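Box S1 | Example of a co-folding query
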Amino acid sequence: MPALATITDVEDDNAHRIIIIGAGIVGCALASNLAASGEKDVLLIDRSFRDLLGSTGHAPGFVGQYNDSLFLSQLAKWSVEEYMSIPGAFQVVGGLELATTPVAAASLANRYKLAREAGIPAELVSCEKAVSMAPDLIKHEGLKSALFFQSDGTADAKVVTAYFRRIAEGHGARLLEADVQGLERCDEVIHKLQTSRGVIQTASSQVIFATGVWTKSILSEISGTEPFPVIPVAHPYGFTPRRDRRTGQPYPFVRWPEYHVYARDHGDRDGMGSYDHKPVWEEPGESAIGSWGPEFASVLAVASEKCLKNAQEFVTVERNPDAEQFNGIFSVTPDNLPLAGKVQNVENMWLCTAVWVTHAAGTAKLISKRMLGVELTAAEAAVSRALDPNRFAGMEFQILAQQALGRYNDIYNSQALEL
Ligand SMILES: Cc1cc2nc3c(=O)[nH]c(=O)nc-3n(C[C@H](O)[C@H](O)[C@H](O)COP(=O)(O)OP(=O)(O)OC[C@H]3O[C@@H](n4cnc5c(N)ncnc54)[C@H](O)[C@@H]3O)c2cc1C
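Box S1 (continued) | Returned holo structure for flavin-adenine dinucleotide
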């Protein structure tokens, strides 16, 4: 457990201070960059520093670098560079995509071409080779083609987050365990944060929200800001029962884009998730684990039956109490891009939200540079513009929310919408 500050340590304001609300992978990465710069006093606030209550604590951590949005590909590449330097954080197991219809095979061929153009290693492999890479997972019957991304892998989000937090603490960042319950905005400035431990003065500080799936609810506190379309959605994920650890080459992460299904080898068990259901908007409670209903069990059962050789191992919890299934909540946005940057009309307010593990380190580094006033390269400036949290200004929130929900099923593939 880290050393925690008291409210008296942190209640006073100062012009060098940056307050980060949220200590998931994004908040901790921001804290690490900003504290390590030596230019800012960093205060990191979260409800819990013991357990990761947010999405970070539940992500299976697939990091696929190719995305039809070149901004997301770039952020993923920057993030992987960082994860590779963190001990125990990133395993280059590769990412395998499979197709069972001619249309899906054509889509893989197109992704292959575009990935190569984007400078991301990719290879079309035979179906036999694909099956041999994950023989317990992949059904051979009906396979038409396979695309392998050699440099993709899995990030252990908990290891990454703990690492960033240690770096931040090592550079003097203070950690306050408190629930931010309200904000006081006066004119164009956030003056105060009301927390479960007391009030923190903020008029001279910069405040950044790295609050993940809670962003929409906390920002509804701030009158006069645009509604930011960061919509929390439910997502079912399930495991097989535990077994002896597989030996030999680790399996790649496997995806069946046409079925919106993915699976991974967790070492002593396998896991799978499915996007093949109607999107469910679910506001989180204390944690990013939502409610589980029989409809999710059947989503996983149908998905595993379609794609997985070991489908019978992904049985319902009722039939096998050793298996585990849960509904993890994460954020979607109307164009699949994070909302990250300075908020217009509020002088001291920033957002860094709707960021995947895949893009977290890269996004946090970019936003830290902006907060420190460091000049951006042309590539960084282009990505930064694309993530501008004000890009939906003036649009109807309910329409944006529906667009965001509509992105859920194609989360890995879809091109960022031009809005
Ligand atoms: C089931 C599942 C599967 C996923 N699969 C993948 C994957 O394969 N690859 C991938 O890249 N991503 C995946 N994701 C998405 C990824 O986990 C998230 O996008 C990422 O972890 C978000 O990080 P974050 O730091 O922004 O948010 P979080 O981890 O949610 O952190 C937000 C923090 O803010 C704190 N907080 C919020 N409000 C307050 C408040 N008012 N006061 C104090 N503290 C507050 C919370 O306690 C929390 O710690 C998955 C997510 C889930 C749930």
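The two ends are 44 Å apart (CA to CA). The chain has a mean pLDDT of 93.
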